[in-house]
Amino acid sequence: MKVINAEGHILGRLASVVAKDLLKGEEIRIVNADRCIVTGKRKMILARYRKKRDLTHRRKGPFFPKRSDRIVKRTVRGMLPMKKNKGKDALKRLKVFVKVPKALLKEKMIKIEIASELNSPSFMELGDLARLIGSKE
């Protein structure tokens, strides 16, 4: 089981690495999901995520999450082949947490070097984005 600390990691890069590892059969836990980074200008990020939120029909969907841990899980889901059984099974092996749970405090946390290299001068933390699109965290 891998425990990944998402603090300071870029969301898309983190999700792609996690998706590959899940397809290999590993169990992964992501902690500190609200400290994950989305790159780009603040207005553009908000516009993109609000558009995803407003696209939905209240009863019929597609449903896009507001909470930061669910946004991370949804991003990883987008990189898995969900129409096949291997994609569905891979997603079941992923757990995402906003903070570090007591059960995982003693575990060694991994930092992914590829996902933590920040080249963009403008970015936004996922927790701030979640609050701005309507999360009650």
The CATH homology group name: Ribosomal protein L13
Give the overall shape, derived from the CA principal axes: globular
The CATH C-level name is Alpha Beta
Taken in chain order, the helices and strands follow as EHEEHHHEEHEH
The secondary structure category is alpha/beta
CATH architecture, by name, is Alpha-Beta Complex
What does the oligomeric state look like here? Answer: single chain
How many domains, as an integer? 1
pLDDT < 50 runs, ≥5 residues: none
Q: What fraction of the residues are assigned to beta strands by DSSP? A: 5-15%
The largest pleated sheet is described as:
4 strands, parallel
Q: Which percent bin holds the helix content?
A: 40-55%
Q: Output the strand order for the largest sheet.
A: 4-2-1-5
Description:
With 137 residues, the protein is α/β, with parallel strands linked by helices. The protein has a single domain (2-132), classed as Ribosomal protein L13 (Ribosomal Protein L13p, Chain: A, Alpha-Beta Complex), CATH 3.90.1180. It has six helices and six strands. The protein has helices at 11-23, 42-54, 68-77, 85-92, 113-116, 126-132; strands spanning 2-5, 28-31, 37-39, 94-96, 109-110, 123-125. Helix 1 links the parallel strand 1 and strand 2 (28-31). Helix 1 (11-23) crosses helix 3. The two termini are 27 Å apart.
